[in-house]
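Give me the fold.
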Amino acid sequence: MRISVEGLACRRGERLLFRDLSFALASGEALVVTGRNGAGKSSLIAMLAGRLTPAAGEIRAEGIGEATLAEVANHVGHKEGLKASLTAEENLAFAGAMLGRPRLSPREALARVGLARAADLPAGYLSAGQRRRVALARLFVSRRPLWLLDEPTSALDAASQARLAEVMQGHLAEGGLIIAATHAPLGLEGTKTLSIDAHVPGVDMPGGAEGERA
């Protein structure tokens, strides 16, 4: 699988967030997107997930047959997207039914993120870090090659961040792809980086290391 983005621009209302953004990513590679708050990191992830339409530019995917990019992507946004009245297991069962391509059961997915004991607890009773881990467990209930992550380490303690880095490295080793918007280091080796600040109109940011190896 290969993703190529050329000349992408994002407009929200009257505001142009970024323009002329380009990168390419192939199986086994990760791209870390950095930038200031409001620069458009979350909007870029939403575009790749098919939830926003670019103002300009093109997003292409090869090696996915007749599927769309959104249909081969697991998207974990900045908000967890959990129903407070449903248990952790029920939230993941719902996600798995919606996403298709079964991989792990909800309980197995919770075990991957260290939350096996929380399977029967309503999401509304969980801490912020636990809710984040339930959201990340959605990555394991459906077998999809592209992971789109928006601030994936938010609310995670050091041990949970290390566990996340381990499972992300495993996904890459299996030929998966990861695009993550983040303020914090992810602990991944050999990632590509893209500074979205370098594509914000009127902002002169040195570096802008898109496509460079970290």
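Helices lie at 41-48, 88-99, 106-112, 128-137, 158-173.
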